[in-house]
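Long-time lurker, first post. I've been practising inverse folding by hand and with some scripts of my own, and I keep getting stuck on stretches where the structure tokens seem ambiguous. Below is the full token string for one chain I'm working on. Before anyone asks, I'm not after the true native sequence, just a reasonable design that respects the backbone. If someone could post their per-position residues I'd love to compare against what I wrote down in my notebook.
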């Protein structure tokens, strides 16, 4: 009788732990789904990369890199904006 009771308790504890793990996993998925609705993953990666760059190399290096990217993207966007107009002529 005592052995059977121990097995039932062991099974109940294992089952409870499994249910708790599933609940935590479900809550984590719901949190990420809500977060994804407001902020996209590339933005989060960019923020993390900027923080890492600032933390490792300082704000001067971060500013240099950000200005370089801004200038580069501006040039590419400008070229792409004028390219179709020149091709059609």
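-- Answer (accepted) --
I ran through it position by position. Result:
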């Amino acid at each position: 009788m005592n052995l059977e009771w121990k097995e039932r308790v062991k099974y109940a504890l294992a089952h409870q732990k499994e249910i708790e793990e599933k609940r935590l996993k479900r809550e984590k998925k719901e949190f990420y789904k809500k977060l994804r609705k407001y902020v996209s993953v590339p933005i989060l990666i960019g923020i993390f990369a900027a923080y890492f760059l600032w933390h490792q190399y300082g704000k001067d290096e971060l500013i240099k890199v950000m200005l370089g990217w801004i200038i580069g993207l501006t040039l590419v966007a400008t070229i792409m904006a004028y390219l179709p107009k020149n091709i059609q002529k």
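A couple of notes from the structure itself: The mean pLDDT is 86. The chain has three helices and no strands. Happy to go over any region you disagree with.
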